[in-house]
Structures are given as structure tokens and as C-alpha cells.
Amino acid sequence: MAISFTSSIKSRLQREVTELEQTLTQQRSKRARAEAKIKQLERGVKLSHSATDLSSKLTQLNKLTGQLAEGKRKETELARQLRLKQAELKELQAKPAVDS
Questions:
Q1: Which residues, in sequence order, are CB contacts of 93 under 8 Å at separation 6+?
Q2: Can you give the residue ranges of every domain in the chain?
Q3: Neighbour tally for 57: CB within 10 Å
Q4: Over the stretch 8-65, which tens digit does the pLDDT of each residue have?
Q5: SS in 3 state form for 69-86?
Q6: Contact 86, 13 (CB under 8 A)
Q7: Torsion of CA 67, 68, 70, 71, to 10 degrees
Q8: Distance (Å, rounded) from C-alpha 31 to C-alpha 23?
Q9: What is the rounded distance in angstroms from the CA atom of residue 63 to the CA atom of residue 15?
Q10: What one-character-per-residue DSSP string does 58-72 give?
Q11: How far is CA 76 from CA 14, 23, 36, in A?
Q12: Which of 57, 62, 84, 98 has its CA 20 to 30 A from that of 3?
């Protein structure tokens, strides 16, 4: 493999790893906010006095729980992709540069 070709692949992989790390961090932040909102709603459910208020909070709780599950699935997939890209990059960096 030519050096310029190898370096362009390394650059691309480094860029993809960085993007995946940023996306994963954002996803974790979203999950933390959703978990905090769920806890807040659960406390609110206990204090609800009217049936409509309770129903509304339970609906929001169900929606957030679904979003949380979807977020965890995305987070798992992003982490898997990140591990693969990092392994690929590490493997490429371990190879000696060969000039063709």
C-alpha cells in the first residue's frame, strides 16, 4: 500500500473515531437527561391529585421509557462501531509504512 493511501485511510479512520466518540457522548447525555426526567415524573405521579394529571404523567413516562430504550440501543450500536473503528485504526497503525 502506498504511504499516501495509508495515511489517507488513517486520517479517515481517526475522523470517524472522533465523530463516533462525539455522537456517543451526546447519546449518553440524552440518556442521562431522560433518566432524570423519568425520576422527576415518577415523583410527580406520587403527588398527582387528579386523574387527568396522573394520566398525562403516565403517558409522558411511557414515552420517555420508550425513548430511553431506543437511546440505549443506539448507544450500544455506537459503542460497537467505535470499537471496530478503533481496532481497525490500531491495526493499520501497527503496520509498517511501505512505499510502492
A1: 10
A2: 3-91
A3: 19
A4: 889 999 999 999 999 999 999 999 999 999 999 999 888 888 999 899 999 999 999 9
A5: HHHHHHHHHHHHHHHHHH
A6: no
A7: 110
A8: 12
A9: 34
A10: HHHHHHHHHHHHHHH
A11: 20, 12, 20
A12: 84
Q: Sorting pLDDT into bands at 50, 70 and 90, what band is 3?
A: low
Cα 17 from Cα 85, distance rounded (Å) = 6
Residue 95 is classified by DSSP as S
Let me know if 21 is exposed, middle or buried by CB neighbors in 10 A (0-12, 13-18, 19+): middle
How far, CA to CA in Å, does 42 sit from each of 28, 48, 85? 21, 10, 39
